[in-house]
Amino acid sequence: MFDRSIVVQTQNLQKQYRTGFWLNQKVTPLKSCTLQVHQGETFGLLGPNGAGKTTLLKLLLGIIRPTAGEAMLLGKPVGAGFASSGRIVRQRVGYLPENAYFYDYLTGWEFLQYTAGLFQIPADVAQRRIAELLDLVGLAQSAARKKQLRRYSKGMLQRIGMAQALINDPEVVFLDEPMSGLDPLGRYQIREIIASLKSQGKTVFFNSHVLSDVEQICDRVAILALGELLCVGSISDLLGAADLYQVKVHGGSADVLQQWIPDLQFQDGYWYGHLKGDPQDFLATLRFMNAQLAAMNLSRPTLEEFFVQQLRQRGITASQ
């Protein structure tokens, strides 16, 4: 049974292809995937190349059909029965593929007009919506809106692609590698757009290799490798508390220090452990206990470190 209040649900979802000249070889890019994405959250799907991320997105969008398992998008089952309800669902969904194709000789404004026509958006509404979106993605200046897409930079194409994904004011937005190939300023702009979508209560589901960006903007993340989900959870659940510090102290007494450092240990003339309490109060107290702070560092790993650790624990290398 699926909870219809959840935007995306999958249960043992699988996709298998037959390859080779005689189609006698089987490749399974997605294996028994079970996850949920809640309304209004920003969900990041992480994984190395070939992990099955794009396959999962295409399954959820009804672009390809699953070999086994079940999936629901906005309360509608994806798969064999998606043809009848798919058009209604797609009216409520935005999608930016990793390698989007654009009609090069259209201007930015003309391209968004064309996209609005596909959704049968009334002309007066479309004009207003296009102006809003060009402003949102930083292409409102007359030179950019009148320039043909073949003259756009990589960052400008990514931003016009984001605008077309939002033209129908979707409830849920799927983004496949939205930061791919962007410079730091372009990545910042895309992050700001995703943050604005979240503030509007929209659900954002995206793949990315830029883990530092994912760590900043996602409510929850999942790691996918070799077609299998390795873990799913919030950033704090996976990495630990954001304000957990490891400290190194010289001097002081164990009895007093243990009030601040419950897992206190002594080695090579220094006290070690994880700080419990406000760091500023701890630093002020050190002066009264005849002790000196030697080091204080955030003890939780970055998302990138956690990601690499998860792959290594399972013997997965980049070449795979």
Summarize the structure.
The protein is an alpha/beta fold and 320 residues long.
How does this model look, in words?
The structure is a single chain. By secondary structure, the protein is an alpha/beta fold. It folds into two domains: about 230 residues, P-loop containing nucleotide triphosphate hydrolases (Rossmann fold, 3-Layer(aba) Sandwich), CATH 3.40.50.300; about 55 residues. Helix content is about 35%, strand content about 30%. The protein contains twelve helices and 14 strands. Strands 6-7-8-3-9-10 form a six-stranded mixed sheet, sandwiched between helices. It has a four-stranded antiparallel sheet with strand order 2-1-4-5. The chain has a four-stranded antiparallel sheet with strand order 12-13-11-14, with helices on one face. Helix 3 packs across helix 4. The longest helix is centred in the middle third of the chain and has 16 residues. The chain is globular. About 30% of the residues are buried. The model has no long low-confidence stretch (mean pLDDT about 90).
